[in-house]
Amino acid sequence: MKGLRVAVAVLAAGLVSSAVPLRGQAGYQPAPENLAARRWFQDARFGMFVHWGIYSVLGDGEWVMNNRKIRAAEYEKLPAFFNPVDFDPAAWVALVKAAGMKYVTITSKHHDGFAMFDSKVSDWDIVDRTPYKKDVLKMLADECHRQGIKLFFYHSQLDWHHPDYYPRGRTGHDTGRPESGEWYRYLDYMDAQLEELLTGYGEIGGIWFDGWWDRPEADWRLAKTYALIHRLQPAALVGSNHHRRPNPGEDFQMFEKDLPGRNTAGFNDQSEIGDLPLETCETMNNAWGFNITDRSYKSTKDLVRYLVRAAGNDANFLLNVGPMPNGKIQPEFASRLKEMGDWLSRYGESIYGTRGGPVTPRPWGVTTQKGDTVYLHVLDWPDETLSLPKLPGKVTAARFVKDGSRAAFVEDEAGVRVKIPAAMRDDTDTVLALTYQSS
Ligand code: JFZ
Known about the structure:
Layout: H1 2-19, H2 32-44, E1 46-50, H3 64-67, H4 72-75, H5 89-98, E2 103-109, H6 126-129, H7 136-147, E3 150-156, H8 183-199, E4 206-210, H9 222-232, E5 237-240, E6 253-256, E7 278-282, H10 300-312, E8 315-321, H11 331-347, E9 355-356, E10 365-370, E11 373-378, E12 385-388, E13 393-400, E14 409-412, E15 415-419, E16 430-438
């Protein structure tokens, strides 16, 4: 009887520990250079997301292998058709800069497992399998370093091609792989590729993980992987698109297709906001990877307003492009990016280097802050007078950022009221700068 009770207790303890695998790098203390990189990241506020892989050949998004139930052996025909002869990293980075973006996050490996770099631990990569035979990540990394743009890698933990990604999770069931495999051998492989990415491409901004959600119950050995990254490049920021509160060892928190705390896309039901730098990613049409028939382009106005709302929620905006199989970024994307850059060349002071402002997001818009200046981003306001609660100090000046002209305001016990004449209103965003004297 006693023996039985002990056995039950041991079994229960075993169940608990396997049901709740230790997540993250326990006891992680970010290095000083990592903390500095987090501040840089928050100051940057705007980056380019790039989903590029052999799937672009099919023009049907990056999930095409899973969605169309393409077997691994069939998918292996694709690399032979991927020959991006028009890929011009200098032109990409020039576009990044013209858009006013400060960093790039590109797919080193998406769920199809195909490495867009010259991996030595696999031949399922761009150099070994495509007629192009060049390491596009290396070309892009060199150009980013030349032009002062930080480069992050999106790396999929989920893998629809590797035989050792087993047991399978929620996706990747129709690939024709044998129903067997060594999970930890797969994780060794993933770590080996990450080591290649963190040692062969110069200084890297960070790793943007995705795919954890395919097997939430699995032992992902995050502690080992995160420690490896922080050991190789202490300033590299680790983030994961797991839609949960961040785990120890993560350096920023991301939100997919939603502002922090919102859940309109249905992905972020468990995304409690933590205390790390925040980032939200969004598509320019509805696709991440190149989709030839997706015409649902967002307007420049809506994209600018998303950037503004992100900044007002203290988050970065990572805006996606899915380059074409020839290596070019389609004109519908390029033109919108340049227009956003034009907007930022005038209003950048209210975005870059700011943090979410002292007035939380309101129906009329958001605020950002830098030093003793609060920026009002009036996105929707039908009235002439905008009422604000008291700011952290007495307001000494108010101006419209558009032309520097003075804005009339009154301040009393209740707060500040600012006059916004109809003539000064801007459909996209009416930006005012209020300077206060710290008390
Ligand atoms: C993921 C990727 O699957 C997608 O291809 C893209 O890279 C995007 C940025 O990130 O999107 C998700 C994430 C989670 C789920 C589905 C898509 N999920 O939980 O089912």
